[in-house]
Design brief:
Largest sheet: 8 strands, mixed
Oligomer: single chain
Strand content: 15-25%
Shape: globular
Radius of gyration: 17 Å
Number of strands: 8
């Protein structure tokens, strides 16, 4: 089992394919398995790295440790361990916090950034205040998958649930404050970003609705927003062909991978 001993934990990771690297960072309800529809596509042309955040999936955690605050440092250490100097970063939900924080800290190591169904934890009032009005339903499927997807894809809906069940039980209070964190990156922190950035959101996303994602996009230079129909908070899972196409378009325009 591929394990990276970093920062006092044992981080599970996988590598598929060869070429320029892409690292996929999963959300709260997922783990490395969540990206199976991306691996089948991108591993034909790229080196694809998936991993489990500390405390998720097959990655260990430490008692009374830094928890989610260490995510971006863990990503940096994983890249160092794998001797990857520069990579594209693709994320969903919580993984966007990992990837945006890492990009702000080490922009020279990021060739492109994809924020899927996430603001990346932006703490600017123009975004946080909008999130304060968002009250997603308590049922997990109502938060993560669109009604259209659930009705038309019962097998994949079950698979989505089973992937989430592989994670240790964790209260939502562990992650929720990160999404509405007024201490997250502000407009002035984002103003110097030069990394090509793509934000993708499902039209039915109830956690980060399109109008919230639009506000976040306006704060990031070189950023574009794509809204995907018949998807909610898991565009990569619900509409993988469209998600993958959009990511490929971004990566195809990346001039500097090294």
């Amino acid at each position: 089992m591929p394990i990276a001993p970093i920062n006092g934990i044992e981080m599970y990771y996988e590598i598929h394919g060869s070429g320029q690297p892409i690292v996929f960072s999963h959300g709260r309800g997922g783990n490395h398995f969540s990206w199976w529809q991306q691996l089948a596509d991108f591993s034909r042309d790229y080196k694809c790295i998936t991993f489990d955040h500390r405390g998720w999936g097959l990655t260990s955690d430490v008692t009374n440790g830094p928890g989610t605050k260490a995510f971006s440092d863990d990503l940096e250490s994983l890249l160092d361990y794998l001797e990857i100097e520069k990579t594209a970063l693709v994320s969903q939900s919580m993984g966007g916090i990992t990837n945006l924080n890492f990009t702000l800290k080490s922009p020279h190591r990021v060739s492109a950034l994809v924020l899927g169904d996430t603001t990346g934890g932006i703490g600017d009032p123009s975004v946080v205040d909008l999130l304060g009005d968002v009250h997603p339903p308590e049922h997990p499927l109502g938060r993560a998958l669109s009604t259209h997807f659930i009705e038309h894809n019962p097998a994949k809906t079950t698979l989505f649930q089973q992937i989430g069940f592989l994670n240790p039980a964790m209260p939502i209070s562990v992650v929720s404050p990160l999404f509405r964190n007024p201490d997250g990156p502000k407009k002035e922190d984002l103003s110097d970003m030069v990394t090509p950035t793509l934000l993708i959101v499902g039209r039915e996303d109830l956690i980060f609705p399109p109008h919230v994602m639009e506000a976040a996009t306006k704060l990031i230079p070189n950023a574009t927003l794509e809204i995907v129909a018949n998807a909610a908070h898991s565009t990569h899972f619900e509409q993988p062909e469209e998600f993958n196409k959009l990511v490929r378009m971004l990566l195809g325009n990346v001039a500097n991978w090294s």
